[in-house]
Design a protein that fits this description.
Blueprint: H1 2-24, H2 30-50, H3 56-78, H4 85-104
């Protein structure tokens, strides 16, 4: 269970560093760049810790999925990106896939 918690936190940190890329302005803005790099390193370290116990074929897709879904949702909620019915459907399918990988993990 601890590995799953680490993986969940790592996925949220992936969302933070992915969103942070938008605010670094090509890594020309100091504090957004620092925050992005720190979140990236922390995310990777937690992913590495999680895969000590979890299969990489489960952990990595879950990590990427959390980051992708979180980043897309951030864009919709805070950046005014489109929230069409189809886009929301595909985000829901991504979340279902993440949950499915968790449920079927060894």
């Amino acid at each position: 269970m601890k590995a799953w918690v680490l993986l969940l936190i790592a996925g949220f940190l992936e969302t933070i560093w992915a969103v942070g890329l938008k605010y670094t302005d090509g890594f020309t803005r100091f504090w957004p760049s620092v925050m992005t790099v720190v979140a990236l390193i922390a995310s990777m370290v937690l992913l590495a810790a999680a895969v000590r116990e979890l299969p990489i074929g489960t952990a990595y897709p879950v990590w990427v999925g959390i980051g992708a879904a979180g980043t897309a949702l951030f864009g919709i909620v805070y950046l005014g990106e489109p929230a069409s019915a189809l886009r929301l459907l595909f985000l829901l399918l991504l979340i279902v896939a993440i949950v499915g990988l968790k449920w079927t993990a060894a």
